[in-house]
């Protein structure tokens, strides 16, 4: 094993990282975010801004015989970089904390404190630096998580609880569905599900689904928002479209299967504006509704004898 990879593993072990974050994958990520090549001394560690793909490219160029497969991106993001951020080792989008989680421009950077620690590896100050970093690691993680926390999108669930979704246009549109669409077209309704593009599940009222006789399929892709119109016993299945498509014929059939236990299904595609809607008009399924946040008092109804309501 190349010496620098062994060094990186020893550093992660010294930081008492979990076993899943002291493996080859995590060692390569640490080397990449420190810009440590096979002949680079640790005291020359740097702090470049790197996305997941450049991290993979760095590992392939300098340490691997063959590159990582493209589908490894999510594993690196979820099983290494996420934990590095929680440990105060790396910063996530320090140049723009409001950048969406699923943005292709997302980047990581080693924190200043961790960079100082890396530069001391193998030197006389290493043990002292290590002890200091470990002692204040929790405070560092909270400190660097604060800007992103401020950028999260708050949504009131209806029972006084505030949930927070990952920052980005998608979460803002979900908030508009909950706070602008639902009161207008399903007054008195209850939010029972809202998804999140980040690592969090979002909000899910499992007891409400159980009371409706709906068993959530872990393999089924949930809509972005599920609202229960209790007065009419309708379930409004809402998709927030910012980067992915609307409720097309395929998605319409998927949602009908997923929620087959309930008869009163209403399918809604939400857009931020009519300009965005225009890009998807040819894809939108019949017998569905379209709502645009920039014209919140109006619905566009695609065919059928009803303006808003389920079909047998």
Task: Provide the CATH superfamily of the largest domain.
Answer: BsuBI/PstI restriction endonuclease, C-terminal domain
Number of helices, where a helix is a run of at least 4 consecutive DSSP H or I residues = 11
Distance between the termini: 64 Å
* Percent of residues in β-strands: 15-25%
For the sheet with most strands, the description reads: 7 strands, mixed
| Overall geometry | elongated
Count of structural domains: 2
Mean pLDDT: 87
Sheet with the most strands: spatial strand order: 6-5-7-8-9-10-11
And the CATH topology of the largest domain? Trna Endonuclease, Chain: A, domain 1
User: Helices and strands, in N-to-C order?
Assistant: HHHHEEHHHEEHEEHEEHEHEE
Structural class: alpha+beta
CATH architecture of the largest domain: 3-Layer(aba) Sandwich
């Amino acid at each position: 094993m190349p010496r620098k990879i062994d060094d990186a593993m020893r550093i992660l072990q010294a930081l008492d990282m979990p076993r899943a974050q002291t493996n080859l994958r995590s060692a390569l990520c640490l080397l990449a975010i420190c810009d440590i090549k096979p002949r680079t001394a640790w005291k020359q560690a740097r702090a470049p801004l790197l996305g997941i793909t450049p991290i993979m490219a760095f590992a392939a160029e300098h340490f691997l015989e063959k590159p990582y497969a493209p589908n490894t991106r999510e594993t690196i993001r979820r099983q290494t970089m996420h934990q590095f951020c929680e440990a105060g080792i790396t910063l996530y989008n320090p140049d723009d904390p409001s950048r969406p989680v699923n943005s292709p421009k997302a980047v990581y950077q080693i924190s200043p404190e961790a960079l100082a620690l890396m530069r001391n590896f193998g030197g006389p100050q290493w043990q002292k630096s290590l002890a200091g970093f470990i002692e204040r690691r929790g405070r560092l993680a909270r400190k660097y998580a604060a800007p992103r926390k401020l950028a999260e999108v708050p949504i009131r669930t209806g029972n006084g609880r505030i949930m927070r979704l990952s920052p980005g246009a998608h979460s803002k549109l979900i908030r508009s569905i909950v706070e602008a669409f639902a009161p207008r077209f399903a007054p008195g309704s209850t939010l029972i599900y809202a998804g999140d593009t980040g690592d969090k599940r979002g909000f899910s009222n499992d007891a409400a689904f159980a009371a409706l006789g709906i068993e959530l399929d872990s393999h089924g892709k949930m809509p972005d928002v599920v609202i229960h119109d209790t007065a009419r016993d309708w379930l409004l299945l809402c998709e927030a479209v910012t980067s992915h498509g609307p409720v097309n014929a395929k998605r319409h059939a998927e949602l009908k299967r997923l929620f087959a236990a309930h008869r009163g299904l209403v399918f809604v595609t939400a857009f931020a504006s009519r300009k965005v809607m225009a890009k998807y008009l040819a894809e939108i399924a019949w017998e569905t509704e379209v709502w645009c946040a920039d014209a919140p008092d109006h619905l566009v109804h695609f065919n059928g004898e009803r303006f808003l309501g389920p079909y047998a």
